[in-house]
Structures are given as C-alpha cells and as structure tokens.
Amino acid sequence: MSDRLAFDILERSISKLKGRRFVLDRSIPFGLLVGIVLRRFSWLIRGAVKCLILQQEFRLVFMAPKVNLRNAALIRFGNGVTLERGVIIDGLSRDGIRFGNNVMIGPYSLVRASVLSNLGAGIRMGDNSSVDAYSYIGAAGPITIGENVIMGQHVCFHAENHNYDRVNTPIKHQGTRRKGIVIEDDCWVGANTTFLDGAHVGHGCVIGAGSIVHGEIPPFSVAVGVPARVIKCRLPDGTTPASSHVNPAGDV
User: Fold this and answer.
1) Angle at alpha carbon of residue 136, lines to 116 and 215, rounded to 5°
2) If one looks up domain 33-233 in CATH, what number appears?
C-alpha cells in the first residue's frame, strides 16, 4: 500500500468518526503517523472498555493513560471525545457533566463541580470544543460552553463566590453564591485566562491570553486585560448583534 493511499484511508476514517471532513498534513513522516494511529487506537480501546464498565454504555472515547473518572454514572460523553493523559473528571453534581462529540480535554486538566457538603450544578460542553493542558473547570454554578470553542493552556473557570460580609464568622462558613458561566459558540480563548462567576462571553468572541473575565462580553468582540475589556469588534461595520443561542452540548 502506498503512503498516499494510506493517508487517504486514514483521512476518510477520521472524517467518518468526527462527522466532518478531516485533512491530514501530508508532511508528517509516514512512520510517525503509524505510531500516532497505534497510540490513539490503544486510547480508543481503553475508553470504550471504561465506558462499558463504569457507565454501562458503548462510546467511542479516546482515553490516555492515567485518566481518572470519578462518579462516572453522572458523566456523559459524545463520540470522539479525547481525554489526554492525567485528566481527572468528577461527575458529582446536580445535573451531571456532559461532553458533546469531538470534545478534547488537555493533559492534567481537572473538571469538577462539588464538595460533599454543597453539590454544584454541572457542566455542558458542546461539539468540537476543547481546552488545553493544565486547565481547571470548577462548576459549582452551572457552566455552559458552546460548540467550536477553542481554549489554550491553564484556562480556569470559577463559577462561585464566597460570602464575606460578617467579620465575626470565618469566611469559609458564610456560604457561597453562584451565577454560573456561559461561553457561546465559536470563541477563541487564550492561555492563562480566568473566568469568574457571572461571566458571559457572546458568540464569536476572542479573549486575549492572561485575561480575567467577569461580566458580559458582547458577541464578536475582542477582549483583553485584567479585567477583560473590549478593544474592538470583529464585524466589518463595528456593530454588535444580539447574543446568539447557546447549544449546550448537542445530543450525547
């Protein structure tokens, strides 16, 4: 079999799995590509077996070594989800954790919602969205991430605030308030960005690396800084349309 034919077969197979056209970079040495395919196949077998054992359902999920699923009965995966090495996902929450098709969680990231004394809301992450290495998604309040959202490394979500009004009571005993966080479809989030409780990022936004986001960012905005402020609009005429509907996670 020629290298070209092998590339074509792989592209068709990956496209079928992802449900959309996928094109391989033909500059990848064929020998390295074979190694990548074999590694991914071992992840697929591991993911399918774990889903069957922990969730009693078959899913095409790629799980690297040392992925830790806790309270797995409350976690739902679409097909083609990739969980990189060292990812921890704790499903304990009121509404569970749901990932759409082709979601990717980067290496050594942590996804959770709750402590035993105060259950959190949960997470919805839409099709084709991803967050890169060493990220933290804390969904005490509800977190909704739309489709086709790409996020860099060390991105953090904190969907909760502590009350601190009473000076005669330790802050840890004064309770919390939770609004939740929303990121709509087709956003690009730079590395080291932090989202605080109540943040709502509109459709098509770009959030600059190192930003801290609190409050609303209008659709198609470019926002940067601490706190994040809009510096321009992506639309040609500079207008800002109304916020679009968020598809929370597709059918999973």
Assistant:
1) 95
2) 2.160.10.10
